[in-house]
Specification:
The chain is of the alpha/beta class. Helix content is 38%, strand content 19%. The strands form two sheets. Strands 8-7-6-9-10-11 form a six-stranded parallel beta sheet, sandwiched between helices.
Length: 275
């Protein structure tokens, strides 16, 4: 890596010290023959205005773009210009491009990454009725993706009932009805698929967001958590015979799509996965 990389990138979020995003983007740069640096900006415990200040500073300091992660994705969508109507509807972004030192474009590769991860593993199989746990910055793009994949119904539960109700009101379309549920058990009842879009299960928030007694026997499950790669939720679902789509797959595909936005370059997926 040279001292003056061609592409300076970064990640803004809370508790991101173990994120593998720097490694993914720097390896992708090596594969395409370009110099890439990728810096973590961990705001955990800082002031409430730190996100906006950090985002502006990244632009002033000449970064090409940044990824945005928990808990700032919805906040970023309120201050960064968004061209894609689908991303405006999602109301959350995880990728920001700078132009002339200011945030110029917001994108959501969580959405495209989830759709790619689902299709690679599940092919043309429709999701059926899906329990979606978590209605925040990850839940919103997953809900839109589930609708595009042909979900029969999306039943969303969040520990904040107002957030679940808002997602249901804003994202219900002709593609798939979205229903806010008062309990996770209501969302799970007879679900063909379960998607965890909450942080429960990651190394900082251990546990299972889905009570095992209410899990039933879903055909497939997805966990947005990828650190650790195998979570309590996915292990319990696998033991019930469910097809598991790992959060690592979302991490991989959203990263590939973000790298293309940041650099304009396509990285060879098999080479990146092997690296």
């Amino acid at each position: 890596m040279t001292s003056n990389p061609e592409f300076r990138l970064g990640l803004i979020g809370d508790g991101i010290g173990r994120s593998s995003a720097p490694r993914l983007h720097e390896l992708a740069g090596r594969i395409v023959g370009r110099s890439v640096s990728y810096t973590r900006f961990d705001l955990d415990g800082l002031t409430d205005t730190s996100f906006e200040e950090t985002l502006a500073a990244c632009g002033r300091e000449g970064l090409a773009g940044v990824n945005v992660t928990h808990p700032y994705k919805e906040r970023a969508a309120r201050i960064v210009p968004i061209q894609d109507p689908r991303v405006r509807r999602i109301g959350a972004i995880n990728t920001v491009l700078f132009r002339d030192g200011v945030p110029a474009e917001g994108h959501n590769t969580d959405h495209s990454g989830f759709v790619a991860a689902y299709r690679v593993q599940m092919g043309d199989a429709r999701p059926g009725a899906v329990a979606l746990v978590g209605a925040g910055g990850v839940g919103r793009p997953i809900a839109v993706g589930l609708g595009e994949l042909g979900a029969e119904e999306i039943r969303v539960f969040d520990i904040d009932p107002e957030r679940a109700a808002r997602l249901a009101a804003e994202l219900t379309t002709g593609e798939a009805p979205v229903r806010a549920c008062a309990s996770v058990e209501e969302a799970l009842d007879g679900a063909a698929g379960i998607a965890n879009a909450s942080p429960i299960g990651m190394y900082r928030y251990p546990g299972n967001p889905v009570p095992e007694a209410a899990m039933g026997r879903p055909r497939w499950v997805f966990d947005a958590v990828y650190t650790p790669r195998d979570t309590e939720f996915t292990l319990a679902a696998a033991a019930r015979g469910a097809e598991v789509i790992s959060g690592y797959e979302l991490f991989f595909w959203q990263g590939v799509h973000a790298f293309r936005l940041f650099t304009g370059l396509e990285v060879e997926r098999d080479a990146l996965r092997a690296a």
